[in-house]
TrEMBL record:
Annotated keywords: Metal-binding
SUPFAM superfamilies: Glyoxalase/Bleomycin resistance protein/Dihydroxybiphenyl dioxygenase
Pfam families linked: Glyoxalase (PF00903)
InterPro entries, A to Z: Glyas_Bleomycin-R_OHBP_Dase, Glyas_Fos-R_dOase_dom, MMCE/EMCE_epimerase, VOC_core
Protein name: VOC family protein
Phylogenetic placement of the source organism: Bacteria, Bacillati, Actinomycetota, Actinomycetes, Kitasatosporales
Length: 130
């Protein structure tokens, strides 16, 4: 078995597309900025985050058509220089809600939300430093 992707169901596809592509700097697979589906990948690694228009999935599962409430997911991205990356994405429109700050003696983190309210955690692994 192989994890292909984590897929987020969204209602404002265009806003989420801009957030993951333009603000966080992930690479879109096809450039389908209006949806109903797009996969984003980081510069390294094989994991991906995909967006899917909630109404498309509601055609398969009726219950998905209901408005989503509360925190439904936490997307975790590892970065090498957390402070610099947070400064960079803030200039591109992100709002960092917490951090950068130590989480443990091995990791620093920052938290933000995408336009749909999904939590995003940025991690800097201190053990990987030289």
């Amino acid at each position: 078995m192989e994890l292909a992707q984590v897929r987020l169901l969204v209602t404002d596809f265009a806003a989420c597309y801009r957030f993951y592509g333009d603000v966080l700097g992930l690479k879109p697979q096809s450039g389908a900025s209006e949806g109903p589906y797009e996969k984003f990948s980081p510069a390294v690694g094989s994991a991906g985050i995909a967006l899917q228009d909630r109404s498309m999935m509601a055609e398969v599962l009726d219950e998905v058509g209901d408005a989503a409430t509360g925190h439904r997911s936490l997307v975790v991205l590892r970065v090498d220089a957390l402070d610099a990356y947070c400064e960079e994405i803030t200039l591109r429109g992100a709002t960092v809600l917490h951090g950068p700050a130590p989480l443990t003696d091995r990791m620093r983190v920052a938290h933000l939300k995408d336009p749909e309210g999904n939590l995003v955690e940025l991690q800097e692994w201190l053990l990987l430093r030289g």
